[in-house]
Amino acid sequence: MKKAKTLLSILTCLVFLSSFGFSNGLNLNGLGARMVAMGGAFVGLADDFSAVLWNPAGLAQLNASTFGFSGDIIMPKGTYQFAPYGIDTQTESKMYPAVMAGFFTPVGDNIVAGISVHTPSGLGASWNGADLALLSGIPPALGGTGNPNIIWESFIAMVTVSPAIAVNISDMFYLGATLNINYGIFHIQRTAGASPYPAPPLYMLDLGQYKEESTGWGFGGTIGVLVKPIEQLSIGVSFRTPSKVKFEGDATIENLPLLGGPDTTAFSREVTSPMWLGLGLAFRPTDKITITADGHYTNWGKLDTVETEFTDSFWQAALAGAADLELLWEDKWQFRFGVEFWVSDNMAVRAGYYNDPAPSPDTTMNVLVPNYDFDSISGGLGFVLNNFKIDVTAEYLFGKERDIPISLVNAMPGVYGMNILALNISLIYEWVK
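User: That's the sequence. What structure does it adopt?
Assistant: Structure tokens below.
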């Protein structure tokens, strides 16, 4: 009976773990400064090295050996307010990098092949633990004063290696495909909550710090088609398969030994990166102007509940089900628009906009990986210097405030806000004679 009560207590105090999961913020909405500057509407254009990610068919348009590098600095600023505890705080200032590098070369009259390494997913959050003290340890409602020493932070990223091949079947039709080899990283630190303590003089126990570190591998692929029915118009379709990544690592609950279990155990969790479909148009009314429009569909609805398996029997008995990630996501469309204007033969001006709706309901909202509806505006410049192309871009994402009521079960209530500034530079070198 005593053990059953202990296990029930752990299940109760860690139920918040079931609400933690990925978000639309996990998928970086742009890699490649030119693509980002045009609002991410690139599936129907796809005419530089970043096509490997957005529509590999476009690689067949490269006429010379090409090396490209793109680097992003992502600077999110999140806010969180919870009036009942007097919390009014914001994320610590941090910069999250994202990179892409690829080399592609013609291997025949109509075939281009190469390889890319990029980070299509990644973001995180870091909060001042003292600001969230009343949400840690023993809460005021149970007679406690919280715990200001808890670390609240998350880091999620994926690195993908993509060998690619593209074929120019005719002047009107291009076909391309990649193999996506994915390496995932998932780190989180937060409160482990509190539990009834089965022995006097203490009747509530602060379980201390919860920490989880894991990595995993997965495989998938992308196939793309690009059609040019007339010289001024191109139409693209790109399909990225789901990729199941099996994360394995260690989880720690600082004070769990006081309840009879080990503080650390190995665990595993399978997370599926969902299917993605991109549809795009690129229209060139003149030689100097290109207008693009995309629709991106993500099958987030497949992410319902992600189960967690603990190696240690005490952890598995206590947390089976409670540590599962109940996401309850919905499929979403993004709509993107961009324009490029060549001021001269050596300089282009670009601008773009897209809307990115959050896939998650209010019940899965929390401070470590929050979800928002974003509106993004972007602008950038492109320069041609002999065999070099240099593109620079600034993007700003306006997050719609979310007010999560205290009445929602499993949710982390409060008022959330988020804005993101992203700066990007791409360098491309072509071995043109």
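Residues 1-25 have pLDDT under 50 and may be disordered.
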